[in-house]
């Protein structure tokens, strides 16, 4: 790809460097990104453009997604979609990996944990770039692992498949996403971890959402809840609670208000027993349950939407929640506000979601639908609304 245009990207890099915690000098950024100091200075002054590889290195050093540093965010989305064939190729040979190097288990553990961090912060480009090779390496590791290491390698493979699925699902590659979910289900017995199996049950719901098979999805989640270990230790409490959260949402989509309320009550009770955190790759706790209260209200629609307003009136997601979950709250709230005739509030919520997780927001189908509806209903050519609608490809 050609270098980005100088100017705006340099200003964005300088801004994120200045707000980094702790604040980062140009010299420190150059060292972390392994880019020449003179190059960093020229980029920030707008004297030269930035290649994709350099941009990715700088973004990684700053701890932000590359899409935050460029004005042309379509370019980032294109790069992600261009990477999907490599992901398909990597999983095509899941059971007959090619020859190649395999890092020691601790290094593989670190690499997989990084993909989970990227997923939770909605940094999909990083996943798309790194996961295909990592999946191939993990397949080689699984094929050659000594018996004592098989469960952990299988667990790492499941977790990496989940990160890959996040990209496929968010970017509309639903067949690829369904294939990745099936590979998770194939690999998870080898991990010998019922809590990891519960997390796969949680992710599997995506296929039911995509097919609008909500009643079947609810049955699958209830089966996963029944198979989940008793909620004694925190990890088991969180696993069962996360399944109830998702069951509440899909019950709402199925139009079953009673079932949605029952599952939400269970999730709320379990959420009160643990600290908010990430368990088996899924955020769970009191704050996550509140976000799902909004999701359930929006799923049920009509008179239930007031519940979303009640939550939002008293509470907003704290900054330490994963970015993908926080942006999801604002996207759901925007839909409720739109249904309630609060058009300006809905647009503000969408803009908050974009600031938190631009890639997640841009690719969310509800964002496109709502932006198109807002532009049509406001009957005004407001520049910011028009620009937003064009940014997310709203019709």
Q: Report the sheet with the most strands, covering strand number, pairing sense and barrel closure.
A: 2 strands, antiparallel
Q: Enter the CATH topology name of the largest domain.
A: Serine Threonine Protein Phosphatase 5, Tetratricopeptide repeat
Our estimate of the beta-strand percent is under 5%
Strand order of the largest sheet: 1-2
CATH architecture of the largest domain: Alpha Horseshoe
Helix content: over 70%
Shape: globular
Keywords:
Serine Threonine Protein Phosphatase 5, Tetratricopeptide repeat, 395 residues, two-stranded antiparallel ribbon, 73% helix, mainly alpha, 434 Repressor (Amino-terminal Domain)
What does this structure look like?
The chain has 395 residues and is mostly helical. The protein has 4 domains: 1-71, lambda repressor-like DNA-binding domains (434 Repressor (Amino-terminal Domain), Orthogonal Bundle); 73-170; 193-315, Serine Threonine Protein Phosphatase 5, Tetratricopeptide repeat, CATH 1.25.40; 318-395. It is built from 20 helices and 2 strands. It has helices at residues 8-19, 26-33, 37-44, 52-62, 73-92, 105-120, 124-144, 150-170, 174-191, 194-211, 214-227, 234-253, 257-271, 286-300, 305-314, 323-339, 343-356, 358-363, 365-378, 383-391; strands at residues 277-279, 282-284.
